[in-house]
Amino acid sequence: MPDRPYHHGDLRAALLSEAGAALRRGGVEGLSLRELARAAGVSHGAPRRHFEDKAALLEALVADGLRRLGAVLQDAATPDGRPFGTVLQDLAVAYVRFATENPALVDLMSASRYLADASDELAAARDESFAPVRRLAERGQAAGDLARGDARRVGTLMFATLHGLATMANNGMIDPLDDDLIRGAADSLVTGLAPTAGGPY
User: Fold this and answer.
1) pTM of the model
2) Residue 186 CB contacts under 8 Å (≥ 6 apart), including other chains
3) How far is CA 179 from CA 24, 94, 129, 196, in A?
4) pLDDT over 70 for what percent of the chain?
5) Measured distance CA(3)–CA(62) in Å, rounded
6) d(C-alpha 104, C-alpha 198), whole Å
7) What percent of the chain clears pLDDT 90, i.e. is strictly above it?
8) What is the 3-state secondary structure (H, E, C) of the chain?
9) Please, are residues 102 and 65 in contact by the beta-carbon 8 Å criterion?
10) Torsion of the alpha carbons at 36, 38, 43 and 47, rounded to the nearest 10
11) Of 113, 122, 108, 110, nearest to 26 (Cα)?
12) Which residues lie across from 199 on neighbouring strands?
């Protein structure tokens, strides 16, 4: 049977969508450019116009996931008059919800090979994704809700707490729908990072 022709309005977006669905169903091992082409209804060679190989597809998935996460975090952390603690609570719930709805994607995004020696595109997506957390830390410091210090470091501590909660939820150790627990953890984080006379943390 001859290959199906390459005709698609936005093949790259369609392939990423199909790849995301395949990742949710079977993890990284379940991803195949040939199967994605079949699902998108194009010839098996068509995906290579956008992704040289599976590794390139995975990197694109990570970049797309980071941008989606960044949009979720930005929406949760948008300044709108809420107290700092409430914003952090909402951001914490948003991150844990995203991570529990996309566990395989978040695992892929957290893989060490995408954290070191990242391409320029991936590094930009990563910085964009976590910028809402950093900006929230900066606002908290400016308002006196958080101790002064390196905002990136404070943001990293905040993210580490959120990612830990998400990992526990994905492992079945906590109920991902227990927003009260997540909000309580955010409150404890604010208390732990509050300004003190003894030092920056």
Assistant:
1) 0.81
2) 85, 88, 89, 91, 92, 161
3) 24, 10, 22, 28
4) 90
5) 29
6) 41
7) 24
8) CCCCCCCCCCHHHHHHHHHHHHHHHHCHHHCCHHHHHHHHCCCCCHHHHCCCCHHHHHHHHHHHHHHHHHHHHHHHHCCCCCCHHHHHHHHHHHHHHHHHHCHHHHHHHCCHHHCCCCCHHHHHHHHHHHHHHHHHHHHHHHCCCCCCCCHHHHHHHHHHHHHHHHHHHHCCCCCCCCHHHHHHHHHHHHHHCCCECCECC
9) yes
10) -10
11) 108
12) 196
52 burial via Cβ count (<10 Å: 0-12, 13-18, 19+): exposed
Q: Which domains does the chain possess? A: 9-51 (1.10.10), 61-192 (1.10.357.10)
Apex 30 CA angle, 117 and 8, nearest 5? 85
Q: Say which residues have a Cβ less than 8 Å from residue 180's Cβ, sequence separation at least 6.
A: none
d(CA 74, CA 135): 10
Residue 6, pLDDT > 70, answer no
Each residue of 117-143: pLDDT tens digit?
A: 678 888 888 889 989 988 998 999 998
Count other C-beta atoms under 10 Å from residue 194's C-beta.
Answer: 13
Tokens (6 digits) for 146: 């958080």
Of 155, 154, 190, 185, whose CA–CA distance to 169 is shortest? 185
Query: Whose structure tokens read 């952090």?
Result: 88
